[in-house]
Design brief:
With about 500 residues, the protein is an alpha/beta fold. The protein folds into 2 domains: about 240 residues, no CATH class; about 220 residues, Carbon-nitrogen hydrolase (Nitrilase/N-carbamoyl-D-aminoacid amidohydrolase). It is built from 18 helices and 15 strands. A 7-stranded mixed beta sheet has the order 6-8-9-10-11-12-13, covered by helices on one side. The longest helix has 28 residues.
């Protein structure tokens, strides 16, 4: 216990281990109590540190979170970016060390301004607010990196019922609150602080009881009859994806698989299933559109789009469907290269095919298919809670297409799938997920997978989705209520600190 609470390298090493535990709480391991243990270790580790010490303790925790949880970055850089083992390892560690500061700054602020060891209730609530605020900030700053949120651990656990109420950030808030209370309650019992004990026990039990009671609650209702779906998984090797000699073979593969598929209302192809520009694929897509119309089907596919000299990662719909969508949340280095004048040409990783996309405009019209509006997301976009909510609140169905081949056989695709499941749960809508090599899946409004096909196999997934109407509380209000609560708790902690100093 003393190693956790005291400054120095033993406590910092334990902070790295605590951060790594968060990975085991998430997919594909799903040992959700470890999310609480991880936060308990962080909370205890910050209790007696000054601001500078807390900054480095938080950095160590963040390095553990990303070093273990985003190890798939090594696969992308080494296997597909052409970097050597040493260089790929160095770049992965450099990335983890950089994004670890997303935890370092909040921990410094916590120790410097918000911590209230002598007022355990204010301390507990402010810690939970700090934890949620750092997740929200991490999803926004410099376009954001909203990966590895602790709330995802509750997808199949008791707090899942809170997701439609306040999203994944509300769940993260409750996990941090629980961790701090578990640390504070035993000591207050020994001090016979009955008021804190009563309030603390209520705060400990109530969110879990409410979450369990709301789990499975239907916030939305069907807007029409179920639609049949065929999602085509081509399993194209990444080395072939942008090879000009392989373009015709890829187009023929998706054409032939679709021609032989069962008739369905919706036919979904994954991200950049058409590996040429939309204006170059007009004849091919017109032909596929006529085929879809003859079957009274809607065909939706990923395809790069050229417009006014700029290139976009996009989606287009044909047959009994209409519309195009240009991706708004781009993947750094995968779809655009920051500081490209300096980095282009250094290694193959900075010159990947299709790494010069532009950002699509906001306020785009939703795709229309079979008379319903579909909120469409491409790959990385599904990991942004607020962005997805802003797209989904006018939709009846949700769709995400991806090419997770970049992740190889790592845990990345399964983490990505888990985040898509959380988005469906938050929105109370069916989610269709079509990927190049897995995980292709149908996800119901409770965040549960109802149909899938194996990774790394060519095949077609069949199933049904139901268009949904009405809004969950989260879609209606987004995260504004929780952000206001956090601001109020920060104000309370700061006021209590000033009063203590002046008193």
């Amino acid at each position: 216990m003393r190693w956790i609470t005291r400054p120095g390298w033993p406590g910092n090493l334990l902070a790295v281990a605590a951060g790594a535990l968060n990975t085991l709480a998430l997919a594909p391991y799903d040992i959700w109590p470890l999310a609480i243990l991880s936060l308990v270790m962080l909370y205890l580790g910050l209790r007696d540190l000054n601001g500078r010490q807390a900054l480095w303790r938080g950095w160590c925790y963040g390095f553990g979170v990303f070093g273990a949880g985003t190890s798939w970055i090594y696969v992308s850089i080494h296997n597909f970016g052409g970097a050597s083992v040493l260089l790929a390892g160095f770049l992965m560690l450099l990335f983890s060390a950089s994004v670890a500061f997303f935890f370092a700054l909040p921990c410094w602020l916590w120790a410097r301004w918000l911590r209230r060891n002598e007022a355990p209730l204010a301390d507990t609530l402010a810690f939970a607010a700090m934890w949620m605020a750092q997740e929200a900030f991490r999803g926004w700053f410099l376009t954001g990196f909203p990966w590895m949120y602790s709330g995802y651990s509750q997808l199949d656990a008791p707090l899942a019922g809170l997701a439609p109420v306040g999203g994944v950030w509300l769940i993260s808030f409750v996990l941090a609150l629980t961790a701090a209370l578990l640390c504070n309650l035993p000591g207050q019992r020994l001090r016979q602080r009955k008021g804190f004990m009563a309030a603390g026990v209520a705060l400990l039990i109530a969110p879990w009881a409410i979450g369990a009671a709301l789990k499975g609650h239907a916030w939305t209702t069907p807007a029409g009859a179920p639609l049949s779906v065929a999602a085509v998984q081509g399993n194209i090797e990444q080395s072939m994806k942008w090879d000009p000699a392989q373009v015709n073979a890829q187009l023929a593969l998706y054409r032939d698989m679709t021609f032989t598929a069962r008739r369905t209302d919706l036919i979904i192809w994954p991200e950049t299933a058409v590996p040429i520009l939309l204006d170059q694929a007009t004849g091919y897509l017109d032909m596929m559109g006529r085929f879809a119309s003859e079957r009274q089907s809607a065909l939706i596919t990923g395809v790069p789009i050229r417009d006014a000299g700029r290139f976009y990662n996009g989606i287009t719909a044909t047959g009994e469907a209409d519309g195009t969508y240009r991706k708004q949340k781009l993947v750094p280095f995968g779809e655009y290269v920051p500081l490209q004048d300096l980095l282009r040409g250094l290694i193959d990783f900075f010159d990947l095919p299709m790494s010069d996309f532009a950002r699509g405009p906001s306020g785009q019209k939703l795709l229309q298919a079979k008379g319903y509006s579909i909120a469409s997301l491409i790959c990385y976009e599904v990991v942004y809670p607020e962005f997805v909510a802003s797209e989904a609140d006018h939709s009846q169905l949700m769709l995400t297409i991806s090419n997770d081949t970049w992740f190889g056989t790592s845990i990345g695709p399964l983490q990505h799938l888990q985040m898509a499941q959380m988005r469906a749960l938050e929105a109370g809508r069916w989610m269709i997920r079509a990927t190049n090599n897995g995980v292709t899946a149908l996800i119901n409004p409770q965040g549960q997978i109802t149909a899938t096909i194996p990774q790394f196999q060519k095949g077609i997934m069949y199933g049904e989705v139901t268009p949904m109407q009405q809004l969950t509380p989260y879609l209606r209000w987004k995260s504004w209520p929780m952000l206001l609560v956090c601001l109020g708790l920060f104000g309370w902690a700061l006021l209590a600190s000033r009063m203590a100093k002046t008193g």
